[in-house]
């Protein structure tokens, strides 16, 4: 295992901050201190996460793609900017990539206290296995104060694949909030689902043309630990095995043709929806965590590349 810290701009990099290159076996990661944001995960040279070529990279806005961290708010479920401030904050790095992986830390400061008046410490551990084909992400939230606080969030992983020929299993039987149909609560009957079919279903339910569908759903109480499989629909070949821990809910997100529907997605590549699925361990509105003073909460996502 090797980690190298590079300064902002080093080697011609155009990203928003210093960054860490982390290698183990055939795996390599690029992680910016801005947001503790993973922007690349390669296994044997093949990219497993997706970044929009139109992403803002100068730190003025969050980056589009990779693994953004939403904290202390999930999406627009609160008074803060979308997904909270963690993905736009500069984190610190503690230690190198030993057994524990690389640990990124974010603590409250004057800037965060103006937005959210609580004293906290986030520890985000990023770890590759020896072969480099398994990525383990773990987020610890510590309440450093003496009174309780409440938080939501997610790890907003953008997985790279042919999303139009992909099946996702593990969500059958769960209830979900359909954000593309006025947040109606529905039940997922099928065990294996595809993006086009689900986008069309949401559009139809919302009285829209099928091509205008989105998949933006928070599956409720999906359980912990919870395993998902992402596989090629046409051949059945597995692509990723994903394990969620600690997070109560799971978001499934693909803007489908919506990334071409106007000003909402200026930083999303045209037809980028064909290349991504976001499967996100989530703390949604109904399951927000109340953390007592001095308390700790931990949750994560483990991704095995098949
Ligand atoms: O556009 P962003 O702020 O990065 O958020 C991207 C998406 O994140 C989550 O998946 C939410 O469920 C969506 O409602 C949101 O659109």
Automatic annotation (TrEMBL):
<dbReference type="GO" id="GO:0005975">
    <property type="term" value="P:carbohydrate metabolic process"/>
</dbReference>
<dbReference type="InterPro" id="IPR008183">
    <property type="entry name" value="Aldose_1/G6P_1-epimerase"/>
</dbReference>
<dbReference type="InterPro" id="IPR025532">
    <property type="entry name" value="G6P_1-epimerase"/>
</dbReference>
<dbReference type="InterPro" id="IPR011013">
    <property type="entry name" value="Gal_mutarotase_sf_dom"/>
</dbReference>
<dbReference type="Pfam" id="PF01263">
    <property type="entry name" value="Aldose_epim"/>
</dbReference>
<dbReference type="GO" id="GO:0030246">
    <property type="term" value="F:carbohydrate binding"/>
</dbReference>
<feature type="active site">
    <location>
        <position position="156"/>
    </location>
</feature>
<keyword id="KW-0413">Isomerase</keyword>
<comment type="similarity">
    <text>Belongs to the glucose-6-phosphate 1-epimerase family.</text>
</comment>
<dbReference type="InterPro" id="IPR014718">
    <property type="entry name" value="GH-type_carb-bd"/>
</dbReference>
<protein>
    <recommendedName>
        <fullName>glucose-6-phosphate 1-epimerase</fullName>
        <ecNumber>5.1.3.15</ecNumber>
    </recommendedName>
</protein>
<feature type="active site">
    <location>
        <position position="280"/>
    </location>
</feature>
<dbReference type="GO" id="GO:0047938">
    <property type="term" value="F:glucose-6-phosphate 1-epimerase activity"/>
</dbReference>
<dbReference type="GO" id="GO:0005737">
    <property type="term" value="C:cytoplasm"/>
</dbReference>
């Amino acid at each position: 295992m090797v980690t190298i810290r590079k300064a902002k701009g080093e080697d011609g990099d155009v990203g928003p901050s210093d960054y860490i290159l982390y290698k183990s076996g055939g795996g390599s990661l690029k992680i910016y201190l801005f947001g503790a944001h993973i922007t690349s995960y390669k296994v044997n040279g093949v990219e497993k996460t997706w970044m929009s070529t139109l992403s803002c990279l100068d730190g003025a806005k969050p980056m589009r793609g990779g693994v953004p961290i939403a904290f202390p708010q999930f999406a627009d479920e609160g008074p803060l900017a979308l997904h909270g401030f963690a993905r736009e904050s500069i984190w610190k790095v503690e230690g190198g990539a030993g057994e524990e992986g690389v640990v990124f830390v974010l603590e409250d400061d004057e800037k965060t206290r103006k937005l959210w008046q609580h004293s906290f410490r986030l520890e985000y551990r990023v770890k590759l296995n020896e072969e480099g084909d398994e990525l383990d992400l773990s987020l610890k939230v510590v309440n450093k104060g003496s009174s309780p606080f409440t938080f939501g969030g997610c790890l907003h992983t953008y997985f790279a694949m042919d999303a139009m020929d992909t099946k996702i299993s593990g969500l059958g039987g769960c209830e979900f909030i359909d954000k593309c149909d006025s947040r109606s609560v529905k039940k997922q009957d099928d065990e294996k689902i595809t993006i086009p079919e689900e986008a069309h279903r949401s559009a139809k339910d919302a009285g829209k043309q099928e091509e205008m569908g989105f998949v933006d759903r928070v599956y409720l109480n999906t359980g912990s630990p919870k395993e998902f499989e992402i596989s090629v629909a046409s051949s059945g070949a597995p692509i990723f095995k994903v394990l969620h821990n600690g997070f109560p809910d799971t978001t499934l997100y693909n803007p489908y043709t919506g990334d071409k529907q106007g000003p909402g997605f200026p930083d999303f590549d045209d037809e980028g929806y064909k290349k991504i699925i976001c499967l996100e361990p989530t703390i949604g509105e109904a399951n927000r965590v109340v953390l007592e003073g001095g308390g700790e909460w931990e949750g994560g996502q483990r991704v095995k590349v098949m």
